[in-house]
Amino acid sequence: MTLTVVACFIFWIIDCCLSVGFPLKSETAILPLWGKICEIFGNRFVAYSVGVLLVLFIAFVNKHISDNEMLIRERTQLPFMFFLLLMSSNPGLQPFTEATVVQLCFVFIIYELFASYQNPEATGTLFNIGVLLGTASLFLPQTLWFLPLVWFGMYKFSSLSLRGFLAVLTGILGVYWLVLTWCVWKHDYSIISSFFSSLGDVGLMSPKTYHIGMAGVVFMALLSFFFINIDAYNNRIRVRDMLAFSLIILMWALIMILLYGSKCDYFLAIVYLPSSVLFAYILETIRGRVRFLLYYFMLALWGLAFLLRIWNY
Questions:
Q1: Which of 212, 204, 205 is nearest to 310 (CA)?
Q2: Is residue 12 within 8 Å of residue 89, measured between CB atoms?
């Protein structure tokens, strides 16, 4: 796995040397706060250092979820490594963007949702999910379409109840109430109009936004579906449900990419969270030489994806 870490840092160094994504700019956030953050991180080295630290932190939380729920039979660093590989090989997310904040919110949404498994009385946990989803939608409004997926996850995990349903709504509306208060105080309602216009800004993905990395994610998603089903009886029901829901999150985000093609990289940031765990699950399920061949294939695939993106940068 040392090779993966080395490759990731090479990708980050190349991005830094070429100033990929720098200076920081606001593209999808509807709050002026992000513009202020971009001004603060005006130094290239500081911006890339903060970006790497944020990715490492999110990777750690994502791995903690996998270990805590025992999604993979053996404790392994694979979810951590694959997440670093996926993030570092996508120059569109460097050094950090609004998608990083959305990704941070979603890793905790997944954590809270898994924690509510078969606990319909966990209204506090479900309220936190609503707050996190509402916060994420301030930086990428289209993430609000993940709300039905959250409710479906609650149903699948037997945590859906009237109180839980209302707790999620209350969390989201609480965030929007604060934004509305700000708008009234400033007598500026452009934030609200920008939010609703972004939701309706549907544009199918064009060849310009398509790249080989996304094809790799789709291939591995199909492979995950196959292995989750053939290995179903070897997993506990809880693990099987969570792996299946992780795959659903991945597929839902891919659908969002097709609908909002201009935000491809932003939704890929969400895709990378379940993908890294599912990829690790595949490698832990496969034995023998095929396992190593698949690992090196994945490393070469995302290395090629990175080179193609940099070449066209």
A1: 212
A2: no
Where is 205: in which H helix or E strand? none
Helix extents (H) in 116-146: 123-139
Closest CA to 73 of 218, 231, 273, 251: 231
301 phi, psi to nearest 5 deg: -65, -50
Cα–Cα distance between 157 and 129 in angstroms, integer?
A: 14
Span 222-236, average pLDDT: 74
Residue whose tokens read 């449900």? 241
Query: Hunting for tokens 């972004």 — which residue is that?
Result: 198
Residue 274: predicted pLDDT: 92
Q: How far is CA 30 from the centre of its chain?
A: 19
User: Tokens 């999910």 belong to which residue?
Assistant: 129
Contact between 257 and 206 (Cβ < 8 Å):
no
Q: What is the rounded average pLDDT for all residues in the chain?
A: 83
pLDDT at 165 over 70: yes
DSSP tag of 96:
-
Distance from the Cα of residue 205 to its chain's centroid: 19
CA angle 248, 103, 286 (to 5 degrees): 50
Two structure tokens written together for 214:
């996304």
Classify 245 in phi/psi space as left (phi over 0), alpha (psi -120 to 50) or beta: alpha
Residue type, 44: R
Cα separation of 303 and 91, whole Å?
12
Give the DSSP letter string of 164-179: HHHHHHHHHHHHHHHH
Query: How far, in Å, are 58, 116, 124, 270 from residue 112 at the CA level?
Result: 15, 6, 10, 16
pLDDT higher than 50, residue 209: no
The residue behind tokens 């953050």 is: 37
Length in residues, the chain = 313
Distance (Å, whole) CA 312 – CA 37: 28
What digits encode the pLDDT tens for the residues 17-51? Answer: 887 877 777 665 566 667 777 777 777 788 888 88
